[in-house]
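@channel sequence for tomorrow's demo:
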Amino acid sequence: MIDIDIARRLREAGLPWTPADGDLFVIDNAQLRDETFMLSSMVVESGTSRGDRPEFRFNGTTEWALDSVEQREALWIPREDQLREALGDAFLSLHRLPDGTFCVTLRCADGTTREVLAPQSEDALSGALLVLLTEV
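structure tokens (generated this afternoon):
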């Protein structure tokens, strides 16, 4: 998962978000910043039945003190697949270097290519997306 500061920079750079089931987000304030939420049309809890078999329990509201929040207060934390999709045709490749670093190669608007290196694949993809969104 990408860092909240990177997610904030992506939003400020203009990355659009159309919320959908499975999207991760945080409420960007001091009390809730460390809590990650997932959009879901139904909250599903994993548990064990009386017969000790794994089961899923479908519940109503489980966030005990959070009835609702405006979308503008939520900060989207894009997943790896969403970062790739946002890069679109500019995304050329993602590979792991021998030292364990991840490298994203992207095609810039001027036709040149650029490599973005990071310790995690999501970080390399988000860095590449920042490059793409902030190109002048």
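heads up for whoever presents: The beta strands are 24-27, 36-38, 43-48, 54-59, 74-77, 91-96, 102-107, 113-118.
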